[in-house]
Amino acid sequence: MQDDLFGGPPPPPSPSPAPPPSATPAPRSRPRTGVQPAPRDDTLRALAAALPPRLRLGTSSWTYPGWTGLVWDREYPDATLSKQGLTAYGQHPLLRTVCIDRSFYRALTDVQFRRYAEQVPADFRFVVKAPALVCDAQIRSEDGKGRQPNPLFLDPDVAVKEFIEPALAGMGHKVGALVFQLSPLPFMQLQRLPLLLDRLRAMLKALPDVRGATPDGVVAVEVRDPEWLAPGIAPALAEVLREAGATYCLGLHAKMPRMADQLPLLRALWPGPLVCRWNLNPLHGAYGYEDAQREYAPYDRIHDVDEDTRELIVRTVRGVTGAGQNAYVTISNKAEGCAPLSARALAERLASA
């Protein structure tokens, strides 16, 4: 018997007649609040346990009502998922990372990053995009058209103060890959890539040591112009990344060559981690993002299987994680139609080996 606050045993209860069974009130269950995860799936849990521990699969953002039954227990408005869905997402057995795209459109504060980190398990890691403020050579209008040159493009101080420092302060050990996605360049800039490489080197070397600050952190650079992979430029890009302790992010987008043509740049940086963002099915072409968005919504099933990409991701993940390196793979709904199902397909192939 438990003692009361003053150390003595509580007084014995007064006897009272028990109410008849029909008078016993039924226990009232508390209403569930917030977004709830999909029902427990033991098959998924067993599949997750069979994956390489250094692999983190995930999606690009998480605000999709169409994932009902896959990630959520029922359909929620996208605004609700945006604010409350990350905790439920983090309970999915296969999804151990997510790409925060929001940070590309507006720089986030350390407080905002901390709120994300507080919603996920300890072994979860984030892939975060740097703001366009430092990654886009142009200042753009709302329709995406370039209006004027961006004077802060590849600015070291902006990169540190508006991105690296807030991310490290807010997310701490949950930082995974911090990605500088360099937006498509105007024609004149593409003619001066060697000069841009010098600016990229200066920016990257000015960053704090992300790998030393977090157990799994890495800085990665993604490009959206195939000219970066030209024979005269790719080796120089690899050298810049190597000097700065950064890596190349495989950007699987229809604007870029296929994955097989990007892997040589990653091999030039070996040994090192894998950062891969599977963004858009090449069936839709370089400017087919809106077409894929329209055709694939509400993102509840696979529409177009990209067999070549699946197989090559699996082979690359096996090699990278087998050598003891981390692998981050995030998937957009525009890759095949439903990012959680694409993640499951990759996991099944990896586990079968």
TrEMBL record:
The lineage of its organism: Bacteria, Pseudomonadati, Pseudomonadota, Betaproteobacteria, Burkholderiales. It holds the Pfam family DUF72. Residues 8-24 have a biased composition (Pro residues). SUPFAM superfamilies: TM1631-like. This is DUF72 domain-containing protein. InterPro entries: DUF72, UPF0759_sf. Residues 1-41 are annotated as: Disordered.
